[in-house]
């Protein structure tokens, strides 16, 4: 049994070849939900969705989000209508008193759907509508995720990290904003001062998460701050990781992050924005897998391989190296 | 100045030729909102939408709802996902305590979006998302309607009948259900016992409605029970109509309704399900326009013409006849 901690790109890429080392039937993936938002009444869980679409064989592998070949008619029409009506585009948070009305889970990250600043595909949207309606029917987020995972025919188990609201809020020189505003609407341009996972100290890990962390844990090459960070702040998670065998795959080639704003965000939380910063970010890690050209040094077992993942063969190579690392420290 | 009372099909058809007799700039249309529902978090206002799409020149004129040439990718995907996840299809009301959380306006008619029992097009959906998000931002339904009417470039003024919740509930031999369940999901098959406009006695007419009823009023060939009926039960509306010149166009060719379940519904409210029943349904009417082959007799001025509307020329003919009727009684 193995448990991966995952954000929305790096770890899913690794999962593409994970079966070379780990049986999918014995694999659990705990997904970040700090990036989740509600927009236009839809509860969107981007990292969970990437795993669902990947597992269902429909993921858009150019972007690593959304459904391959999806159309975007509603999204385009939303922009057209807003422009024709003279309504603003860009992220528009609902008022503070509206943040949680009817949905506590939306807290701190509930946006108007006018002009819809995230690009949501038409089939993609059906997933969000189903999830949101299941929440309205009384399902928890993890129960709704299980139903969606069934619908997409997943072999692995996917658990959202929590059924409670946790919001990744980025404090920048242009003010505080939700991660999705920072990354999608503002393309990571504001200077990050600090990152806050609002709600995390009061949030419980979703059912099954702590149990899953008793197995060997693999932290994939995801953003240590905003993809993995929210999980680490949940009560009980750091303790569980301290007890387990944990192997972390670097999301950096030296100073360069594979994808996303990992570098800037690492600096903002006072971690070295490079592979070496992983020692700070993951104090509980028992071993690291880093790139063959990376000269980072750790006080823990470290295996080097070509960690760039551009294909499932690449992913299989990295997965086998992770298995090697587990064997060393187990 | 003239004010039309409208449902979703008959009166919009008449409006297609209304400019032959009435200047669009001097025309107000009060639209039924008793058919409105919230489904999957979207506030859908079908009769208002038909008027918006008609005014914007994008209405699907085969169905008289939805947008011409629209795709239905999200709607189809919702059915696929529900089937794959083993979730039920058909209308699923949210629980009583969830009916109004975050949106009082949804009361008595808030449905899960799982499998989405109404056929919502992809561009159509963008209108509902925009409307719903404007409601979430604090707009009233009539303010949101005005913004959407601007977006669609309407020349006429469209007013929803009320900014408060009014739900057309049909009591049948198979239990009570919202009109949309009765008509869309069950195709009008249950036997109607009575019709209730829940909320109407506490609902205020939307701003501008009572003023608009001080002008000459035309009741188009809409369903007297579920299209026009909800408006008539709003406080002040019947009084206002008693004071004004009102001409009603029959929605019947003898015993046959042009469209929709008017016949069955008229019987259920103890009105004769034919043109003659209009005298009961519209006691304040000053004149009627009925079909040339209709032998109904009224105690009020009645003009006969070919009232079947299959084209804008037909609509223009009926509109000119309405003008004639107004001239007689004014």
TrEMBL record, chains A, B:
Catalytic reaction(s) noted: (2S)-lactyl-2-diphospho-5'-guanosine + 7,8-didemethyl-8-hydroxy-5-deazariboflavin = oxidized coenzyme F420-0 + GMP + H(+)
Gene Ontology terms: biological process: F420-0 metabolic process
Residues annotated for 7,8-didemethyl-8-hydroxy-5-deazariboflavin binding in this entry: 49
Functional pathway: Cofactor biosynthesis; coenzyme F420 biosynthesis
MF terms in GO: LPPG:FO 2-phospho-L-lactate transferase activity; magnesium ion binding
InterPro entries xref list: CofD, CofD-like_dom_sf, FbiA/CofD
Known cofactor(s): Mg(2+)
Subunit structure, interactors included: Homodimer.
Known function: Catalyzes the transfer of the 2-phospholactate moiety from (2S)-lactyl-2-diphospho-5'-guanosine to 7,8-didemethyl-8-hydroxy-5-deazariboflavin (FO) with the formation of oxidized coenzyme F420-0 and GMP.
Name assigned to this protein: 2-phospho-L-lactate transferase
Organism name: Haloterrigena turkmenica (strain ATCC 51198 / DSM 5511 / JCM 9101 / NCIMB 13204 / VKM B-1734 / 4k)
Species lineage: Archaea, Methanobacteriati, Methanobacteriota, Stenosarchaea group, Halobacteria
